Amino acid sequence: SQQGEEDPQALSIQEGENATMNCSYKTSINNLQWYRQNSGRGLVHLILIRSNEREKHSGRLRVTLDTSKKSSSLLITASRAADTASYFCATDMNTGFQKLVFGTGTRLLVSP
Amino acid sequence: DSGVTQTPKHLITATGQRVTLRCSPRSGDLSVYWYQQSLDQGLQFLIQYYNGEERAKGNILERFSAQQFPDLHSELNLSSLELGDSALYFCASSVASQGRGGELFFGEGSRLTVL
Q: Which of A41, A42, A99 lies at the smallest CB-CB distance from B48?
C-alpha cells in the first residue's frame, strides 16, 4: 500500500508560473524526500527534509513539512518547460533501517 | 548518470518463464533497493539489502527473490511470470546504514514485458 498520497494527480501550468504539489502520509517518519522522474527514466533525488525541520530550500525548490498534519509540499518557482516530469514524495519511516515508500506522484506539465 | 547500472534495459518474455535482473550499485554504497513501477500500482518497494543481508521487505511476491552478493551487486529473480508482472523494475542504492537515512540513487530501470 502507498504511504504517501499526492495532490494534485496532474498539474498543467505555463512557463514562469509556480507549481505546488502536496503530499500526505500516514505514519511517523525520519525524513521525507522528493524525487523527479522524466517519462520512463530513473528517479532523481531533489531534496530531503528531516522530521525536525519545517522548511528547506534548494535553488527554485522550496519544501515544507508539517509533522502534526503529516503533510509536505513542494513548490517549484518560475517553472520552465524542462520541469515537465512526475514528482514523487517518499517517506523514510521510523523503522531503524531506511525504507523509502513512495507516493502516487504528481504529473507536472509546463507549457512554453 | 547516477552511477547505478541495471541490466538488461528491456526484456520480453512469455508467461511462466523466469528472468533475472541485475544491478550494480554506486561505488561505495552498501544498500541496494528494488522497486517495481507499474501503471496501476505505482512505485512499490520490493526489498532492501545492506552489505549482503536482507534488511527490509515490502510487497514482494513469493515468486520473486533477490540477493546481494559479496561484491555488492544484486540480482532480482522473477519466476512463473504472469502478464501482471510487466513493469519497470528499478534498482537504487545508498550509503544508508541504521538510523542514517539519505537519498537513493536510481538506475534507469529494466522494462519487463510478459506476453
A: A99
